[in-house]
């Protein structure tokens, strides 16, 4: 059976799910999106994802023509129509079709698209043995140019860094901010463990405020770890006892090498493993 895609309140077969080539989402990357996950039929932190979507939209002066409640229903409805219980949901809101010019006032009809599909995950063995990353030469967007807190359809910055990573044989790449501090990876936030403490760059480092990041900070504090949001540079990564990444797709994934240097013992560490276990329990229990 073909997947059903939600566009503007109606469901279309995947082959018929289409929007205008004049849409500014396509022409200029003018729009916002979310990546959400459902576990056993429960959407993980649905409200936080919906809130972040509306905040991204607000920040780019895009008014989403349905309420947050209706958006949440569109997300759960798309999962239900497709009989999906463990899935990835991509929500896209474009500026809408307009003229061939930047001016968003010349657009009409923002398009709301919800796609629910199988999730593509990192290979299972990487959770056991850890991921290798490199530092990309491409810096994360300057917050005064395009704030990384906005989950916009402009992901070229991250895609360029991702290409550097894959060219170097790495599935993720670390991005620095304009000050040379560590910001985040192309689709994941980063955590560093040192002397039993959990450190992660603060929002002011120019990062997406990851929903998995928030959940892991909460879990770590509940478990009694000291969690510090602070500015760090590559030195902190190189001398770390453990490093891990967080993201909707990745959950919590250990990093064992950065720029050809082993991190800690070169194997996933105990705090990373503990937090991964706690995260699995959380997603099984909570929504
Ligand atoms: N940083 C960036 C830049 C992201 O895009 C995260 C951190 C993690 O945030 P969450 O809320 O997921 O914990 C993201 C989100 C993909 C894909 O297909 C991944 C993301 C976004 C879009 C696509 O791998 N990660």
Question: CATH homologous superfamily of the largest domain?
Answer: D-amino Acid Aminotransferase, subunit A, domain 2
Q: Helical region count?
A: 8
Which CATH C-level class of the largest domain is it?
Alpha Beta
Q: Supply the number of structural domains.
A: 2
Mean pLDDT: 97
Order of helices and strands: EEHEEHHEEEEHEHEEEEHEHEEEH
The percent range for helix content is 25-40%
CATH architecture annotation name of the largest domain? Alpha-Beta Barrel
CATH fold-level assignment of the largest domain: D-amino Acid Aminotransferase, Chain A, domain 2
Cα Rg: 19 Å
Give the class from helix and strand content and strand pairing.
alpha+beta
Please give the alpha-carbon distance between the first and last residues. 28 Å
Strand content: 25-35%
Low-confidence stretches: none
Describe this structure in words.
The protein is an alpha+beta fold and 287 residues long. The protein has two domains: 4-117, 2-Layer Sandwich (D-amino Acid Aminotransferase, Chain A, domain 1), CATH 3.30.470; 124-286, Alpha-Beta Barrel (D-amino Acid Aminotransferase, Chain A, domain 2). Helix content is 29%, strand content 28%. The chain has helices at 24-28, 46-59, 68-81, 124-129, 156-167, 211-222, 234-238, 270-285, and strands spanning 4-7, 10-13, 31-39, 42-43, 87-94, 97-98, 107-108, 112-117, 131-135, 172-176, 182-185, 189-194, 197-200, 227-229, 242-247, 251-258, 261-262. The strands form three sheets. Strands 9, 10, 11, 12, 13, 14, 15, 16 and 17 form a nine-stranded mixed beta sheet that branches. A six-stranded antiparallel beta sheet has the order 2-1-8-5-3-4. Strands 6-7 form a two-stranded antiparallel sheet. The longest helix has 16 residues, at 270-285. It is globular and about 55 Å long. The mean pLDDT is 97. 3-[O-phosphonopyridoxyl]--amino-benzoic acid (PXG) is lined by residues 35, 158, 184, 187-189, 208, 210-213, 246-249.
